[in-house]
Write a structure and sequence with these properties.
By secondary structure, the chain is an alpha/beta fold. The protein has a domain at 13-87 and 197-261 and 285-484. The chain has helices spanning 13-33, 44-85, 106-123, 136-148, 167-180, 202-206, 209-212, 231-252, 269-272, 275-283, 300-310, 335-359, 367-396, 401-424, 431-450, 471-499, 508-516; strands at residues 95-100, 127-133, 155-161, 188-193, 196-198, 216-228, 264-268, 285-288, 292-295, 314-328, 456-458, 463-465. The chain has an 8-stranded mixed beta sheet. Strands 8-9 form a two-stranded antiparallel ribbon. Strand 8 (285-288) and strand 9 (292-295) form a beta hairpin.
């Protein structure tokens, strides 16, 4: 349902064939060795726990999938036709571009600015590009790009050097500079990272939607990736973008989103230069009962999203326009450690902001968007119920249950992968194990982060923040986080022990036996009174 750019990174055919043979082997072994007794009456607790929770989770997921199809098949095509019909009338009076780069490889920097300047020059609107750079090399490269394009007359370029204390201060500095220039009514601002490649006609096919809707505050587009790394890394990124496409399309039915991606988003310039908007980008913070008042390090896209959501502005997802990121894991040789770092940062950004968004209530965003935020909080625990029940039942009731669980995983994740592939326009067998990895390991990380979300780290810039300056106070916070996390995990396991029948409360017969044996408190001999 989407036309992916041809240069995206995908797994090789040899890898896909290897995964296919491996999965066929596992499936053959499972089916041939599956014991019949797993379907006995003793299995009811397993099927009840996994079935009920699974039905709840997958019914919600299918609702999102159906809304996504409805948006891509019915709602968006009408909007696309209306936007394209505007022609020159759909263009803004002015265009500003905020592009932040931090130690981007020179070849990537050249390709990014080459595509950006080509797009802006072709669009033909008076435009100012603010290049927020970290060193002189970026300036030299951008100068070469402009020279190669003959210094387009509709483009003014401004360089602003970053302080090195994070992306937020760099963005705020540029937004203040734009504010001082007093943008014309209807002017737009593009906020993008310095490793994002604009595909041809990105501006022509996305900016006119603002002319259709006066209440549209911001939009974002579909994503793809050029990945430096292994086949698993390439498919991990593409799977994440496929999942993002489904959820973004679903949320766009309600004219709200759950995030405005910092990779590439477009805002009305008058909103992006509002003092409170700039203040939130620069110094967003929350006051938490356990962590006190702490400032956000990353997650500027969550801050801009929250400002628009709180003030009632609508947001839109453009599914047929792609921007392509140059992606690379922090350590390309360590998939597990690198994806852990990335997911921990993303989930921290999500958890730091979703609580205050939920506190706004359904009124400014609609019931579906509000419940989706609540579901983000619930799903990190409900996702863990299935694997936990499978382990408990396998260990304490019947080891052969693990065969059923693995079959359940293969079936459900295969169906999910097929639906994602239908929406994405491509398919990889690697998505089946990777989707389970994202769900279960991601849920574990979310629960970990939820008790420690003040701890923030930006691996590329090597800075961290969120904990108290006092070492003893930071240790107290960490110990309390470990204690609360451990308590909630133990509580969940205890409830599941009871629900699966692994742990049973003593019945009347058991109590009578204990009583006859003199083991109950009531039958214990009373202490002798001293004379």
């Amino acid at each position: 349902m989407s036309n992916l750019p041809k240069h995206i990174s995908v797994a090789s055919k040899a890898t896909e064939l290897t995964v296919l043979l491996l999965m066929l082997t596992i499936l053959t072994v499972l089916i041939s060795e599956l014991p019949r007794e797993v379907f006995s009456t003793e299995s009811k607790s397993f099927f009840l726990a996994v079935g009920v929770v699974g039905s709840w989770r997958y019914s919600w997921w299918f609702v999102q999938a159906l809304r996504s199809v409805w948006y891509n098949r019915r709602i968006f095509p009408r909007m696309r036709a209306e936007a394209d019909a505007l022609g020159e009338q759909g263009k803004p009076a002015e265009l500003y571009v905020l592009c932040t780069s931090f130690r981007i490889d020179p070849p990537v920097c050249y390709r990014v600015y080459d595509a950006l300047i080509r797009e802006v020059a072709a669009y033909g609107v008076p435009s100012t590009i603010f290049a927020s750079v970290s060193d002189q090399t970026d300036v030299d490269i951008i100068g070469h790009v402009l020279q190669d394009h003959g210094w387009p007359s509709n483009i003014e370029l401004r360089y602003m050097f970053q302080k090195g204390d994070g992306k937020r201060s760099a963005m705020a500095e540029v937004l203040r500079a734009i504010s001082r220039r007093t943008p014309a009514p209807g002017a737009l601002l593009i906020s993008m990272d310095g490793d994002i490649l604009l595909e041809p006609n990105t501006l022509e096919r996305s900016l006119s939607f603002f002319a259709l809707r006066d209440d549209l505050g911001a939009l974002t587009t579909n994503n793809s990736a050029i990945v430096t790394g292994s086949d698993a890394t390439a498919e991990w990124y593409d799977l994440r973008y496929a999942q993002r496409h489904l959820v973004m399309s679903s949320m766009s039915v309600s004219e709200r989103l759950l995030v405005l991606t910092g990779r590439y988003s477009v805002f009305r310039a008058d909103l992006a230069t509002h003092p409170t908007f700039i203040g939130m980008v620069e110094s967003d913070h929350v006051n938490h009962w356990r962590f006190g008042d702490f400032k956000f390090l990353s997650g500027d896209d969550k801050s801009t999203w929250y400002w628009l959501l709180k003030n009632g502005w609508k947001m839109l997802y453009i599914p047929d326009v792609f921007v392509t990121g140059f992606e690379e894991l922090p350590d390309r040789k360590r998939f597990f450690a690198s994806t852990t770092d990335l997911m921990r940062r993303w989930y921290g950004n999500m958890l730091r902001t979703s609580g205050r968004a939920i506190a706004l209530g359904p009124r400014p965003m609609g019931l579906f968007t509000w419940w989706s935020l609540v579901d983000q909080r619930l799903s990190m625990w409900t996702t863990l119920i299935g694997p936990t029940v499978a382990v408990l039942v396998t260990l304490f009731i019947r080891p052969s249950f693990i065969f059923v669980y693995v079959l359940w995983i293969l079936m459900t994740r295969s169906i999910s992968t097929l639906i994602l592939a239908w929406q994405r326009g491509r398919y990889s067998l690697l998505w089946i194990p990777l989707i389970y990895y994202n769900q279960v390991y991601g849920a574990l990380l979310k629960t970990w982060v939820s008790f420690r979300f003040n701890r923030q780290k930006w691996s590329r810039q090597g800075i961290s923040a969120g904990e108290p300056d006092s070492l003893s106070a930071a240790r107290r916070q960490r110990r309390m986080g470990h204690l609360l996390h451990g308590f909630h995990v133990c509580l969940m396991v205890f409830v599941l022990l009871l629900a699966t029948g692994v742990l049973r409360a003593p019945d009347r017969v058991s109590l009578q036996i204990l009583d006859l044996g003199g083991l109950t408190p009531a039958s214990a001999p009373a202490p002798e009174k001293s004379s």
